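Hey,
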Amino acid sequence: MRSNFAKIIDSIVLVVVITVLTFSWLRFYTKNTTLSLVAGICVGLMFMAIFNLICHNRETKLNINKATKAGAEKLNLNLLGATTQEILDFFELIFNKDYIVTKNSNFFILKPNSAQNELHSTLHSTIISPNFNKSKFELNDLFPILKVARQLKINEIKIYAPDFSDDSLSLIKQLNNFKISTHNQYELYNEIKDLNFTQTLDISKPKINYLGLLKYAISPQRARHYLFFGLIILGTSFMVPYKIYYLVLGSILCLTALIVKIAPLIKTKKR
């Protein structure tokens, strides 16, 4: 997803390029500089508007905002750490409001309820196959599902998995006797709405206390940062009138870098 700064730069460059091109060609044919310039600017702004509209629509469809992405990945991680029974119970909650759910060992069969049958007599049974025993659904994972579907004479299948390999997606697209839809972790997250899955893996970050903050500040890994900013401030002292403040602060940062880098070595040597 492009940053706002990148969007501004892209827009400016596009307007300038289209304006110059339009101006050059119109000026060649009309010899009227003012008309060519105005027309060039108008065409450039029009192209910029169309370009930004296309980019906006594309980002709206393809990109997931950070909060949704984090939520989907958290759900996926917990599903990967869950037992088969926990996963089946969760997926049953997703579908049991609108369908008659028949649960098997590792998949479901959905049948439209009586109300749906009356309204949509063409609806058929569907196999729901949740696959969260590994991080990616592979081609070999597809064949057992197809065998079950053939035995049950069901051609509509929904497969849920964290992600799908290119080979599996390629074969799914080629199959004519099955209607298969694939749903990755982000699409699943958008489907479940307000349902919450039991947390199986705790990945929340503990709050940093003052002692932890101090340890972070004096970590040897911070030495290069202290040194870098210390040298910059010392260098700046040659270009400003009140040098003493820059000299003091720069010296403190450089000495801090030296201390946090050497202190662990001294401790190790004593042991």
